[in-house]
Amino acid sequence: MGLFEGKTALVTGGGGGIGLASAVRLAAEGAHVFITGRRKTELDAAVEAIGPSATAVIGDISDLADLDRLYDTIRGRGQGLDVLFANASVAEFATLEQSTEQHFDALFGINVRGTLFTVQKALPLLNDGASVILNGSTNVDSGTEAFGAYAASKAATRSFARTWANELKGRGIRVNTVTPGPTDTPGLSALAPTPEQAAGFREHLASQVPLGRLGRPEEIAAAVVFLASGQSSFITGSSLYVDGGLNQI
After folding, report:
1. Residue 162 main-chain phi, psi, to 5 deg
2. 188 phi and psi angles, rounded to 5 deg
3. Closest Cα partner for 203 from 66, 178, 195?
4. Burial of 30 by CB count in 10 Å (0-12 exposed, 13-18 middle, 19+ buried)?
């Protein structure tokens, strides 16, 4: 028997990277996993990788109609929701001087607004004792140049986790943040304009990590599974750093 046998999970941004790795692990532990994202090709490939215990629903978490359609699909299964990994987010470099309305709205529209309504609209479906995990970032603590709006959006989600843990404690619902360090995902490489620059960017980030390398999506997924399971039953409102020591040493 897996940790999530007979349980239902949702992973937003489940088409690749940390989201896909987490969906794979949750399914391997027995959960039926719903995944959502904006790109059908990625979602189709993800379902193939996860197997028959996955259901994909295309959508954008910043679009409330898309969220309603997603939750209608989950509701139709009739078993509620036991695990919600609000993973979907976007990142983009821009200094204070370079920031535009479009840059701000894109990051806060998905990372903050989208996360809030992802969790709010899940409330009627969340079973008592469910686990909610938000995707954070070590950039909240680091003051990385040109990452101001992104870091601020992740600081907002960290604050959400504390408040929601307090608000939902009466139902036994735990809310925590998983906080990855630099992780080797397509999204990380996409921050650089060319493959050559992406390689240099990854090498630079790895050199900053005490363990001397980037994280792997599967390592973040292992922490997500821990926070989603009863193995973390006395943990709520917390942030679990999975960063190779980057913000710890």
Report:
1. -65, -50
2. -65, -45
3. 195
4. middle
- Residue 182: which region, alpha, beta or left (left: phi > 0; alpha: psi -120 to 50)? beta
- Say how far apart CA 178 and CA 227 lie, in whole Å: 8
List of residues 6+ apart from 91 with CB closer than 8 A: 107, 147, 150, 187, 191
Distances (CA, A) of 7 to 17, 27, 28, 112: 23, 10, 12, 27
Residue 10's closest CA among 89, 83, 62?
A: 83
* CA dist., res. 151 & res. 156, Å (int): 9
In the chain, where the domains are located: 8-180+215-242
- For the annotated catalytic residues, the residue numbers are 150
> CATH code for 8-180+215-242?
3.40.50.720
- Series of mean pLDDT values for 10-residue runs along the chain (249 residues): 95 98 98 97 97 97 98 97 98 97 98 98 98 98 95 98 98 98 95 94 96 98 98 98 97
